[in-house]
TrEMBL record:
This is ABC transporter permease. The chain crosses the membrane at residues 12-33, 236-260, 288-312, 332-352, 396-415, 691-711, 738-767, 787-810. It comes from Dielma fastidiosa. Keywords: Membrane, Transmembrane, Transmembrane helix. It comes from the Bacteria. GO terms for cellular component: plasma membrane. InterPro entries: Membrane_comp_ABC_pdt.
Length: 819
């Protein structure tokens, strides 16, 4: 023990402790960065979706009192709706008032102005101002058409006191949210009340129990969706088991090979007069090196296993596995590795003491021949140090291998990360909701029968930006052409809706209604006949038709994308310009001739429709002239053309899902696939992988630093032998110090510099990727403040300076011990 605590041993142990402490700090820093990323994402998520954790919608006074008296509810605030605001005869938002705590709970932020302080002042969401075509000017007077909850319609004048940053499209809700805020109940009427709440810390399961009974809506954003790793828990346990098994196997295999190789070296050092305690210390240093290399190889193998499992999971389940290493897991793994290292060291010491150490060794025989010309020269000592660094093949090989493996793992992770980004991009580009199932080749579904009432119901849903139709205009050809049209511009009817076009103008529209497949729509149209009557049997056979002839005709311009087709009236071809057919030229019994490049037929009109009584049908059949026939009239189109519906939404929550489910339940065989949810899950997976990658990179780079450091100290005896040679050649202490530092410092600083550059580039690359592919953006200041990069750079510089100072401080002691 006395020998172990001499100056040389104390210096060496001090260096080991400092290196381990610095490496531990660096490892811990990676977790600080990961946690910082997590907190930044959480903060941005709360800013977008609010801090409230749950909400009751349209509650009664008793329910409100029950919540307010609940001791497990930390805070609650109400939102009260007085009515709806209309523009162009359509409801665009709700008017109401809120309690002040909801401003903080919801992170409601004003772009301009202030909250109302008088009864004639209002704050309006910015997107509502756009719909009202009102300029962003605080203090102006505005008039609002309001339908109150008691069904009274009024026009009220308000002063715009503030402009609110849009929030309602992001919140998860089961009811209307206030878009126009007043001071209070300015109309003194009965209001619809929603209450938003936050639970006491540790009692969030109260909301879960309420949700199970369908009494509450949960704000999943406040729970931060990136905490959700339940899907990967089972895989996570398997991977931890694989990590442990690989750690044990790799370290014991490395120890066995190491002992076989070190036997000759131990015998040589013993022959030079080294004591057993000194040999044990030498073996301990070498053992640490072997353990470090084993850990590095272990993580690389585990990474390859994770990659293979991820590929397998994707092929089997079409989704990757989600992993997140917690700080406690790293402590457990580190403790296991430390115990294994101690056990291996004890085993190696016992094995070493049982070896027969014999042999002679001499270094004096050819000293003068090899090094005489370098006697006493500083430059020669530096040259020897460089040769020591360059000729240390094992250290150079290990350094190259570790750096190569690090770069290969970086390329692999970047490639895998890029594939995940492309997947997220694909799901972000496709529509949010798609009618019915998938088509394997196009990734889009097909639906043959589309009920116009279904489309009309979808059109009146709030939160839908646009409904797209997709149809094949000429399905009998191999060369299909596809058209995308906005819903308002191209209504999709029962089975096929193709326009009769000439010169880019609408001449007429043929609507096919199947009384068997769509009896509801057929009965609605049948009840709207103003002149004549329809023979249903003849209609089903394709021998009679109805004609929609509105009193006011507004021509609509269309692009002629596919061929040409014409409508004839009494033998006259309508060309060049649209000609209005008046009552005196069209009557019951008139023959309508329809010609298309693949169709030519005539049909008598047995009934005229002047106006549709049901507004839903009118919204579908609003074209200039509408000829209503059965599928038998155009048999080659019956059941061939396929139509699909795609929905783009501007809301992010469960409300639209519930509304679509209710609508789909009213139409047999109709269902919707939510691709937005799929895209969100992939974003969560992408962010989780980013956190994992940064942590793994930090750990590997820390290991690289430790490898270089321990390689240097493991070869210290070789450096000592060379110092002995220089001493015997007459070199002074300064020359020996130059030799010693030229090799040691170069290894230390080069590894630290390389690790620092790799880590900074890695974090910058991953953060830049997040900025490109996710909605939450990161500025440069956020990256450097929240991700502790200055702390990291400062720590790396501190490690380098400390190691440099230590090397200088102990160089004299090291040289004095080798005379």
């Amino acid at each position: 023990m006395r020998k172990l605590m001499n100056k040389k041993s104390r210096g060496f142990l001090m260096r080991i402790i400092i290196i381990l402490v610095c490496s531990s700090i660096f490892m811990s820093l990676s977790f600080i960065i990961q946690r910082s990323i997590f907190e930044t994402n959480r903060e941005n998520s709360l800013t977008i979706y609010g801090e409230w954790q749950g909400a009751y919608f349209d509650i009664s006074a008793d329910q409100q009192q029950m919540i307010e008296n609940n001791q497990l509810i930390a805070q609650s605030a109400t939102m009260n709706i007085m009515g709806e605001v209309f523009a162009d005869e359509r409801a665009i938002g709700s008017i109401g008032f809120i309690e002040e705590p909801l401003i903080d709970m919801g992170r409601l932020t004003l772009k301009e102005g202030e909250w109302p302080t008088k009864e004639n002042e209002v704050v309006i969401e910015s997107y509502i101002l756009d719909k009202l075509h009102i300029a962003y000017e605080v203090g102006q007077r505005i008039n609002l058409d309001i339908r109150l909850n008691d069904r009274d319609e009024i026009n009220a004048e308000f002063v715009l006191s503030g402009i609110l940053k849009s929030y309602s499209a992001n919140w998860q809700s089961d009811g209307e949210l206030v878009s126009i805020f007043t001071k209070g109940n300015v109309f003194d009427i009965t209001v619809d009340t929603h209450i938003f709440m936050q639970c006491q810390a540790g009692y969030e399961d109260v909301l879960d129990s309420l949700i199970k009974h369908k009494l509450c809506v949960k704000n999943t954003a406040a729970a931060f969706p990136f905490d959700i790793h339940e899907q990967g828990n089972q895989s996570y346990l398997y991977l931890l088991l694989i990590t442990f098994i690989l750690s044990v196997s790799m370290i014991f295999i490395a120890y066995f090979l190491f002992l076989l190789k070190e036997r000759v070296n131990l015998m040589t050092l013993r022959a030079l007069g080294m004591s057993l305690n000194q040999l044990s210390l030498q073996l301990f240093k070498a053992s640490i090196l072997v353990c470090t290399l084993s850990v590095l190889l272990n993580y690389l193998i585990c990474m390859a296993v994770i990659g293979c499992l991820n590929i397998i999971f994707k092929r089997l389940t079409a989704s990757g596995i989600i992993l997140s290493y917690a700080l406690s897991d790293w402590f457990i793994v580190s403790a296991v590795l430390f115990v294994i290292s101690i056990a291996g060291f004890i085993f190696a010491s016992i094995f070493m003491r049982k070896m027969t150490l014999t042999g002679n060794f001499s270094i004096q025989s050819n000293v003068n021949k090899r090094h005489r010309k370098y006697r006493g020269k500083y430059l020669s000592a530096f040259y020897l140090g460089m040769r020591h660094f360059n000729n240390n093949r094992k250290a150079a090989y290990l350094q190259c291998i570790s750096i190569t493996l690090l770069l290969l793992s970086t390329f692999y992770l970047s490639y895998n990360y890029q594939k995940e980004q492309n997947s997220v991009n694909f799901y972000q580009d496709i529509p949010d909701y798609v009618l019915d199932g998938r088509n394997s080749s196009l990734m889009f579904p097909r639906q043959q029968v589309i009920n116009p009432l279904l489309l009309d119901d979808l059109n009146y849903l709030e939160g839908i930006d646009k409904i797209y139709s997709y149809y094949e205009t000429d399905p009998m050809n191999d060369d299909y052409s596809f058209e995308w049209e906005g819903y308002q511009a191209s209504p999709i009817l029962n089975e096929i809706s193709f326009m009769q076009r000439e010169s880019g103008k609408v001449i007429g529209q043929i609507v096919i209604i199947d009384p068997i497949k769509n009896p509801e729509l057929f009965n609605l149209v049948l009840n709207d006949i103003d002149e004549g009557e329809l023979d249903i049997e003849a209609f089903n056979k394709g021998e009679s038709a109805l004609m929609y002839l509105p009193d006011i005709v507004v021509p609509k311009v269309w692009s002629n994308r596919k061929g040409s087709s014409f409508i004839y009236y009494q033998g006259e071809v309508i060309k060049d310009q649209l000609q209005l057919i008046h009552e005196d030229t069209l009557s019951v019994g008139s023959m309508i001739h329809v010609e298309r490049k693949d169709f030519d037929n005539s049909i008598p009109v047995t009934g005229l429709i002047r106006q549709y009584n049901d507004s839903r049908v009118f919204n579908m059949f609003y074209d200039v002239y509408c000829l209503i026939v059965s599928p038998a009239f155009i048999p080659q189109l019956n059941g061939v053309n396929e139509i699909s519906i795609f929905i783009k939404s501007n809301v992010d929550g469960e409300l639209l899902d519930k509304q679509l489910s209710i609508i789909a339940s009213e139409y047999p065989g109709v269902s919707f696939t939510n691709y937005r949810e799929e895209a969100s899950l992939r974003e969560v997976n992408l962010q989780s992988k980013c956190f994992l990658y940064i942590t793994l990179f930090a750990c590997m780079i820390s290991i690289v630093i430790m490898i270089q450091v321990f390689i240097s100290y493991n070869k210290s005896e070789i450096a000592s032998a060379n110092i002995d040679i220089l001493k015997k050649l007459g070199a002074n202490k300064k020359t020996c110090r130059i030799y010693y530092l030229s090799g040691e410092v170069m290894i230390l600083l080069s590894s630290i510099l390389m690790a620092n550059i790799l880590f900074v580039l890695t974090v910058a690359y991953e953060m830049n990727s997040l900025n490109k592919h996710l909605e939450i953006k990161y500025t440069l200041s956020e990256m450097f403040s929240n991700y502790a990069l200055p702390l990291h750079i400062g720590l790396m510089m501190f490690v380098g300076i400390v190691l440099f100072v230590i090397s200088i401080a102990f160089s004299n002691q090291h040289i004095n011990n080798h005379t």
